[in-house]
Amino acid sequence: MSVSKFERFFRSVAGLDVDKTDLKRYGEFVNRKVYHLLVRGEAIAKANGSQVIEPFDLPITKGLQENIRAFEQLDEDIALAPILAHLTALPRLSLIYSDETEAQLPSIAGGLSVALAHTLKIIDPKLKNPQTEHWQRSFRIFDLIV
Fold first, then answer.
1. Other CB atoms closer than 10 Å to residue 103's CB: what's the count?
2. For 52, phi and psi rounded to 5 degrees?
3. What's the pLDDT tens digit per position in 51-71?
4. CA atoms within 13 A on the CB side of 29
5. SS3 call for 82
6. Which of 70, 77, 88, 110 is the most exposed place for a label (fewest CB within 10 A)?
7. Domain spans of the chain?
8. What is the pTM for the complete model shown?
9. Is it true that domain 3-145 has CATH number 2.60.200.40?
10. Where are the alpha helices (H) located in the chain, listed in sequence order?
11. For residue range 73-91, what is the model confidence (pLDDT) as tens digits?
12. In angstroms, what CA-CA distances link 115 with 36, 45, 51, 134?
């Protein structure tokens, strides 16, 4: 992932200064949360008798949808979506993903990223450079709800 785009993204969203050492943490977060959404999407698709995970199967909340829109607007300047597409691993599940689902995953990862940046700032409104404890607290919050 382009470190400079990663840094610019967090600075633009929440005024945070992150560096390449935060990149691994961030990548693991994005993959874990996208995986959780896909697992739930698979369960929903199966419950509906489908053999394919469609975008409407993913449990996208109103708040996450708003963060996806915020990401898409911001991404016009930063062009982070192609990097997120590469960064986001597609886990093997028993159902396949539709092309539309795969195409939306970078924006979903971007929406999760916007929410993460805001969460870091909510945890400590004066925060400029997140430390391990800030990342861990944010991840615990997301684990409660996503």
1. 12
2. -135, 140
3. 999 999 999 999 999 999 999
4. 24
5. helix
6. 77
7. 3-145
8. 0.94
9. no
10. 3-14, 20-47, 62-78, 81-87, 99-123, 132-145
11. 999 889 999 989 888 878 8
12. 16, 26, 31, 14
